[in-house]
Structure formats: structure tokens, C-alpha cells
Amino acid sequence: MSIAQKLYEAGYITYMRTDSVNVSAEAVKKTQAFIAKNYGNDYLPKYARTYKTKSKVAQEAHEAIRPSDITKTANKLALDSSSDKVYTLIRNRMLASQMEDAVIESTQVKVRVSEYFFKLNGQKILFPGFLSVYPESTSEQLLPKLTESQELFLNELFAEQHFTSPPARYSEASLIKSLEQYGIGRPSTYAPTISTILARKYVEKEGRNLIPTDTGMVVTRLLEKHFPNIVDISFTANLEEDLDHIAEGKRVWTEMMHDFYQPFAKQLEVKDKEISRDDFTVLGKSNYKCPDCKRPMIIKLGRYGRFVSCSNFPECKGMRSEDGKTEADQAKEAYTNEFLSLYKPAPQTEDGKDYLLKRGRYGKFWAHPGYPKIKDAKPLEFTSAVFKKVYGTKPKSKDGKRMVLRNGKFGEFWAHPNYPEVKEVIRLNKKEIEAKKTGSGDNLERFCVIIAVLFYYTHLHFLFAR
Predict the structure, then answer these.
(1) With b meaning 16 or more CB within 10 Å and e meaning fewer, what string describes 161-193?
(2) Catalytic pick from 8, 15, 182, 457?
(3) In the prediction, which pLDDT does 69 show?
(4) Phi, psi (rounded to 5 degrees) for 282
(5) CA–CA separation, 61 vs 14, rounded Å?
(6) What is the per-residue DSSP string for 210-248?
(7) What are the CA-CA distances from residue 101 to residues 25, 44, 248 (Å)?
(8) How confident is the model at residue 247 (pLDDT cuts 50, 70, 90)?
(9) Which of 116, 137, 158 is the last residue of a domain?
(10) Distance between first and last Cα of the chain
């Protein structure tokens, strides 16, 4: 969307936040003239093509997305690689929409083997039509020349095994498609909605996939439990339809606000007293027993991520880390052979006491025995052998000095010893480093459509509360 925004601001395409399929008569005429000149009259249909949207919620105040000047190619505009692809896609779509149909000959061959039949399908393009600019939409599958009752001989026989796959995870594109399908949001709000759920850490991006965070899962569960009518997909679609009716002058806005907000405000008052802290901190049950009272424990979401807490909290303050270790277990881990094969021994205080191994928001660290009253913490340091395996040999700066490993906002990096005075750095691949440290990648649970619509309810609440 950001690329399309730049193309629009540069005057290369029409307004892009629309799902309209309407095109001005002038643009159609120019497109037809270009097709006739560059492809020939055979590629022009008898009448100009017009289209009607299939979407009930389409906003057709603008034209369809099209090039401002159909005669200009991406090369003529000297666009960068990303803009070139987006512009070419829009331009080819506009050209194809005004070209003649392709003529394709389809053939089906049935081969009988005893009482069994095998089918073979083929197709041949007789006239390319719009496929001249949209070749990726179909391809030829040519069959050998065969005659009826011809005897065939087996050349090769092989078996293939296929498995049913689960539904694909949502990407930005597939999530927008679902929102459109259910009538949630409008073209102008799709991009801000996704930006919002990413900014609020409800989801994270892993490649193209949107992955739910613990915060997102907790918020979703809280809304589904206490506000099922608000997060209902049909309710959202109907609300969007009401807003459209207001824009079209078919409904009075004060009436609509009263019908929505009065019961919603009462519901908020009730839930403000009813919702407990557990509703937005408890993630689920745990298999561990409390180290203090032996009661069952639950998984909670804290300031620094997941941890396991006694189900009898606050009467019992028993805790474990996510992997089931108590603070005592954590401290003992610092003296195991496995730990010492990876990290250097615990540093010591001035009076000779060992620092304690603890786990915080960003992982394990050394803490002063008096922590947190004495706010003294130190990072863990790999042994020389492990350090070299994870990070390799320390690189040299331009002036021949060994660079220093530092940690910044975007992860670890090599820096000049006199950084930041000398701004010489080498970025490290965060995923590769994490994989080397842990020996495995992430395995996170996935998200659902419902969190995407949270953006709307939050804003409506603030709007009506004013």
C-alpha cells in the first residue's frame, strides 16, 4: 500500500484506497486506442467493457485503480524495482480489462484399461486476447496427437502420496481478503487496521505470516468472554453498513450512536466491576505443582512474558519459570556442567559472594544476591569456544582494531571500540544468531480474524465516550 501511495502522490496512478471497478469513459477510450495501435483491432471487443462490483460494501466514490496515462510504461517512468512491479501489475490489469477474450481449445482424453478409465486434460491457446498482457493467468497443456481406439503402451507407472494440509496462516493480504468477505472495514481502513494490531503487539510478522502474541491471545479471549456481541462478525459488518447509510443520508447519525452506545456504555459499567485480573493475565493451566503449597499452578502473562504461578495467589506466592524451574533450581543451574560448558562462571561481589542466575524479560542474567533491592545485574558471557561458534572471529575495524559486540534496539552488532564516537558498525543477522544460540527456531501459535477488528471497537468507544 505504501508503494501504491507513492505512485499516487507522483501522479502515476489514480487513488488507490478504493474497491471500485468503475472507469471513466475518457480512460476507456484512451485504453482502447492504445490497444488498437499496439496490438491490433482483433484485440478490441465489439463494445467497451464495463464492470459491476460483486461486493455489497464497495465504496465507489473513486475510479478503479488505473494508470493516469496508459501509454506510459514503468520503463518510461524510470521506477525502482518495487514500484515497477506494482505499476506494471496495475497497468496490465487495465489493459486486459478492455481486451478481447482469449480463445482456448480444451481437450479431454479418456484411456480405458480393462474396466478402469484414466483422464487426461489438455488445452491450446487459439487466440491470446487479454492473455497477451496477462500470460500468467493460464498456460497451454499440449497433448500428443491421438486417434480414437488407438492402442497405447505403458511407458512409466508411479504412485504419489498426498496429505491434507491445515488452513494457511493469515498474511496481510489474506487477512484483508477475509475482512472484505465478512464486510468488516473499508479499503481506506485495511492498512491502518493491520498497522495497529502490529503496533500494539497483538501480532508479530514471521515472514509473510501474522503470528499472535500472548497479549493478542489474552485480549481476544477477554473480548470473546465478556463482549461476545461486540466481537461478533455480523455485528461489525452491520455497524459498517449503518455508517455507510449515514454517509448516504439514509440514517440519522445521532440515532445510530444512541442505539449502539447506550447499551454498550451500560455493558462497560458492568464489566468494569466484573472483569478480574485473571481475565487478562491467565493464559491457561500448567502441569506443574506449586513448590510451596503443592497446589496446581497456572500459566500467567507478566511484564516480562510468561511465568507459572500458584493457583492460590496471592495467598501463596509460589512461582516457577515457564520451563518449570523455581528460583532455587535456577540458581543451581549456574553450577551444572551443561551451563558451564556454555557460559563463564558467575561473577562475584566485592565480598566474594556469587551473583545469582535469574530470568528476566530478555532472558537469563546475573543478579546481585541482594537483587532487586540492590539493582546490580550483569549479562551472561559465553565461553570463548561457544562465542566463536555463535559469532565467529571478532572482525577488525578500518583502523585495525578488534570490534566489540554490542546490543542495540534492533539486536546485536559489532561496533568500533570507540563507538559511538566512531560510527563504524557491522550488523548481525538476528535470526541466524538466535538459531545458533538455541539450536531451534520459533514455534508460536497462530492468530485469528477477530483481533483484526479490535481496532474498530477501541476507536468507536473513544468516539462515543466524548
Answers:
(1) eeeeeeeebbebebbbeebbebbbbbbebbbeb
(2) 15
(3) 93
(4) -85, 125
(5) 12
(6) EEE-HHHHHHHHHHHHH-TTTS-HHHHHHHHHHHHHHHT
(7) 21, 9, 37
(8) confident
(9) 137
(10) 32
- Residue 441 clears pLDDT 70, i.e. is over it: no
Q: Which amino acid is at 52?
A: K
What CATH code is carried by the domain that includes residue 49? 1.10.290.10
The tens digit of pLDDT for each residue in 297-354 reads 988 887 767 888 898 888 898 888 777 788 788 788 888 888 888 888 989 898 888 9
Tell me the C-alpha to C-alpha distance, in Å, between residue 149 and each of 111, 153, 188, 288.
Answer: 9, 13, 60, 71
Confirm whether 371 is a catalytic residue.
no
Query: 166 pLDDT exceeds 70?
Result: yes
In the structure grid, which three cell numbers stand for residue 139, read together?
Answer: 498456460
pLDDT, tens digit, 9 for 90 and up, residues 387-439: 888 888 889 999 999 998 887 767 788 989 889 888 899 988 877 887 777 65
pLDDT (tens digit, 9 = 90+) per residue, 256-274? 888 888 888 998 889 888 8
- Residues 89-131: tens digit of each pLDDT: 999 999 999 999 999 999 999 999 888 898 989 999 999 999 9
Of 137, 163, 193, which marks where a domain is finished? 137
Q: How far is CA 8 from CA 3, 5, 195, 309, 310, in A?
A: 9, 5, 20, 53, 57
- 115 shares its domain with 85: no
pLDDT given at position 450: 43
Domain hosting 243: range is 172-278+446-465
d(CA 241, CA 248) in angstroms, rounded, equals: 11
Show the cell assigned to 272.
468494569
In a domain, 426, yes or no: no
Nearest CA-CA partner of 31 in 65, 68, 80, 64 = 68
Q: Which amino acid is at 24?
A: S
For residue 143, report the phi and psi dihedrals to the nearest 5 degrees.
Answer: -105, 155
Distance of CA 377 to the CA centre of its chain: 35
What's the number of domains the chain is made of?
3
Residue 194: which of 181, 212, 176, 178 has the closest Cα? Answer: 176
Residue 338 is assigned to a structural domain of this protein: no
270 and 182 share one domain: yes
- Count Cβ atoms below 10 Å from residue 214 Cβ, excluding itself: 19
pLDDT value of residue 399: 92
Q: How far is CA 148 from CA 109, 143, 152, 153, 156, in A?
A: 9, 14, 11, 15, 22
Strands 356-360 and 363-367: antiparallel
Residue 35 has pLDDT above 90, yes or no: yes
pLDDT given at position 464: 40
pLDDT on residue 98: 93
- Please name the helix (run of DSSP H) or strand (run of DSSP E) that holds residue 117, with its range, or none: strand 116-127
CA distance 71 to 63: 18
